[in-house]
Here is the input.
Amino acid sequence: RRVQQTGDMGLERVTYMGLGINFAISLTLGLFMFAFGADVLVAWMGEQFARQSQDILPWLTIAFFLLSLSVAPYYLLLGRNQVRYVSLTNMVGSSAGLMAAWLLMPALGLVGAALGRVALGITMLLTYRKLFALKSLS
Here is the structure.
């Protein structure tokens, strides 16, 4: 909104603050899930379900940690009118995740599906590249 109204691209501080807060929250939740995810799963879904899901939980924690890291750049890019790049990144990431899951699920089962989500998360980190390439941050 600020850029559209005033033409001011001095958004560096907001960008870095948003990225820092996003990273801190993502890291905190990711570490919490690594440390206590199994206990949370037992309390939430029961012992039997938790036992059946113990192989997939670490991979899902990694996947959603990576995805959570891309939340701030996603919205910062949308705010900088980079809708096309964000849309293409989403399409490429979704395709990469789908292809990885399709290739890995026959051999690894649900772990292969979780690794597909990891592929999506890694691809979505491309939003950082575009965000830092913008002239307003150089």
In short: The chain is about 85% helix and 0% strand.
